[in-house]
Amino acid sequence: MRTSRSVLAVGVLVLAGLVAALLLVEFDAPTLGRAALLRVGAAVGARVDARAFRFRLVRGLALEGLTASSDLAGGHWTLEAEALVLDHRLWPLLGGRVEIERVILRRPHLRLEQGPVDRPAPARAAALPAVGALALRVVEARMDDGTVEVLSPGQLPLIVTNLDVTLRDLGLAGATLAGLTAGGRASADSFRFGRNEATDVGAEFQLRGGEWTADPIRFRTRQGRFKATLRARLDRLPLTYSIDLTGDPVDLNAVAGLGPDGSLGPARLKLTGQGTGAGPSALRGQGTLHMEPGRLPPSPLLQRVQAALTAPLVGTRYEASDTPFRIFNGRVDFDSFRFRAERYTLDMRGWIALDGPLSLQATARAPRAQVQVAGVPASVLDTLADAEGYVSVPLVVTGTQRDPVVRPDVGALMAAAGRGAGGLAVRKAGGSILDWFRRRK
Length: 441
What we know:
Number of strands: 24
Number of helices: 7
Distance between the termini: 115 Å
Helix content: 10-25%
Largest sheet: 22 strands, mixed
């Protein structure tokens, strides 16, 4: 009896070992792999190839060294991946059919490139052995550690790194992205958009009719935390999108390049816009910037304004304000950006380009006793003082954000002096300002 039990135990162990080996051992599966390539290629309308095909009962079919490419409206896409794993159901496998229900794409690199293309003939599922025994009934698709590049002529690329995507409730009608419907979640370590970078990106999304809608999408930049609703077309190039964005809080010191110890107060940003391509120059929209109280910082612009007036602006505490703005052609345009302090007001209008240049008309209002303008006699400034003892000096600001050029508005000064004290004041002001310009020149 004891011997029989021992033999039975050994037999069970041997059988278990054989089953485990059968489940875990990988097999070369070129016929099934080529069948899978045809099915996948026909499903996405692309040319698909792989370096090797591995089949394991418990894991499924792995297409290693996967490459794919195809054209789409307005451009071309290419894909390279470490592997495409097709997980199957075991019960249909026992009946001789391979039913794929889960797709995992590992370490893919997807490139979308705008440009003229010649559209190829659509992929066809040619007859091969075992093709009829392979069915795609995908209920979930996943992408792990992916990289995406969007390239548009004349623009810096859009690059997403360490991208993980899970698609659920998949449906595919036709062999293009326009026929794909799905919902899911995406996350990425980095999202570089022109010279800007977002990190800790996470989104819930829906894909339908070639349109990708992320709501919400959350991310961080060095300027603050943001939340957005983003809609983008994925079935054609150039990339087109719309965005509703809020930032709260926004670090204006980081925006102005002042560092973490800057004196600007926190802010809230709202922006609604539309864009085309991968760079910020094609973004158009409008929004509002709300600024909480803070102190005027030692930025290059305010230091130059302070030097032009010889009035102590930097360090003065300013009040909360709201500034509507527009964004287009790579620049921010506003009608009134005002710093209102206890004894000073600086009101600016014009535009600031995202890549540095600026063009502003500004008016600085300060106590007459604290204002001096190089080359302008005190008597001329006296004629400009109002009933409260303040003087408003118009300024023209050009140059760049890092190296602004600030000078008094000569025409406006002359006109204001003329209104204040008659022709004599105008002549004095004109002569003084001309002398000032000669010295500057």
